[in-house]
Amino acid sequence: MKVLIVSTQYPYPKDNGKKIILSSILEYFIERYGNRNVEYIVVGDSFLEEEPVVKVKLYNKPSVIKQVKNVFIYSGLLRKKSIQEAVLFSSKIKKRLIEYIENNGFDIVVYDTIRISQFFESYQFNNTKEFVYLDDLFSVRYEKMLKFIKKFPDVDFNVIGNFSKFLPVFAQKVVSFRILSKFLLEFERRLIKKKEIETAKAYSNSLLISQKETKLLNERSNCSTVKSIRPVVINRKEILYNRNFTGEPIFIFLGALNIPHNNVSIYNFIKLNMNKLIEEIPNIKLQIVGKNPSPKLIEIAENYPNNIELLGFVDNLDSLFSKACAMIVPLLFGSGVKLKALEAFSRGLPVIATDYGIEGIDLPLKGECIVENKIENYVHHMKMLTDKTVNEKMSKLSFEFFNSYYSKNAVYAQYDRLFQL
Question: Keyword Disulfide bond: yes or no (predicted)?
Answer without folding.
Answer: no
